[in-house]
Amino acid sequence: MTIPMPLPVPPPVAIQPSMQVTDSQLSLYSELIYDRTGIRISAQKKTLLSNRVRRRLRETGIKDFGDYLNHLKQLRSNDPEWDAFLQEITTHETYLFRDETQWEWFCSYLKQRSSAAGQGKEPKRLRIWSAACSTGDEACTIACCIVSHLPSHKQWDIKILGTDIGIGAVKQAKQAVFGQRAMRLVPKNCMHCFQKSKDGHIWHAKPILTDMMSFRQHNLMDRVSESQFDIVFLKNVLIYFDATSKRQVIDNVQASIRPGGLLVAGAAEGVADMVKNYTRIQPWLFQRPRQ
Ligand SMILES: C[S@@+](CC[C@H](N)C(=O)[O-])C[C@H]1O[C@@H](n2cnc3c(N)ncnc32)[C@H](O)[C@@H]1O
Questions:
Q1: What is 100-287's CATH number, 3.40.50.150, 3.30.2350.20, 3.90.1150.10, 3.40.50.2000?
Q2: What's the number of CA atoms in the CB half-sphere (13 Å) around residue 282?
Q3: What is the pLDDT of residue 276?
Q4: Sequence-ordered list of residues with C-beta below 8 angstroms from that of 172, at least 6 positions apart, any chain
Q5: Mean pLDDT value across residues 215-241
Q6: What is the pLDDT of residue 210?
Q7: φ and ψ at 209, to 5 degrees?
Q8: What band does 50 get if pLDDT is binned at 50, 70 and 90?
Q9: Average pLDDT of the residues in 226-248
Q10: Which residues line ligand 1 (CB under 6 A)?
């Protein structure tokens, strides 16, 4: 009997930290990313893109940018490597109570909804979507405002949906755990909604917040199945899109807002000309007509 020889183990791939995508690879990657996400990668982002893709090379053992690109192209769109790639190339910067003015507005909106519901003029029902929610900080901020400014919130039917294309971000959002940096702007009167870890570095959102929230993966280039949101928060994401993909996202989002409902955009998102037939209340706040 012959004893089979063990297969030779390939040597680990040495990836040079200085290695960059070439100009033609940059445009091929940009096209692929744009088709899938609506995000435009400009030529100035060459180093950033190279650094981010290099992490996928290291993880997969694929030796260069060209091979990795070909690998991605022949994968099905729901392959886990696509998820890992999209998670890597997107920017997930976020923190609780980001953009103070908008939260001040939201708290006054809640007071007005509370009084209208108290007079029987409006239902005790709230549907809110944090679109491109990253790690869930925005959705958690929405929940904090509800707890602090809607006194009878326990008698309301409230659902906050958080979605993001990044699977890792969504996974983290579901854990509802936040570090010190993310927590730095949380007002004192909301801190009772969080449990501090023993080492004091991490805060867990309590069920008073998490019971209202759910998270799932979603690409803004597609529509969501829900169609009756009172408010959609769409902040700090369309800055990465061009006019064509922005317009597609805005059309998708508008289709999900109920009559009289609101769109809260980031201040620098540049969507005012694209939000059709809505009343512009603030440069970042748009209302769908009631009829
Ligand atoms: C900078 S974060 C903004 C998070 C939060 N909205 C805020 O303002 O703090 C941008 C998020 O948009 C997500 N994103 C980018 N393109 C997307 C797309 N096509 N569909 C859904 N999410 C996307 C990214 O994964 C990232 O988590």
A1: 3.40.50.150
A2: 13
A3: 87
A4: 135, 136
A5: 96
A6: 98
A7: -95, -50
A8: very high
A9: 96
A10: 37-39, 90-94, 98, 132-134, 137-138, 164-166, 169, 219-221, 235-237
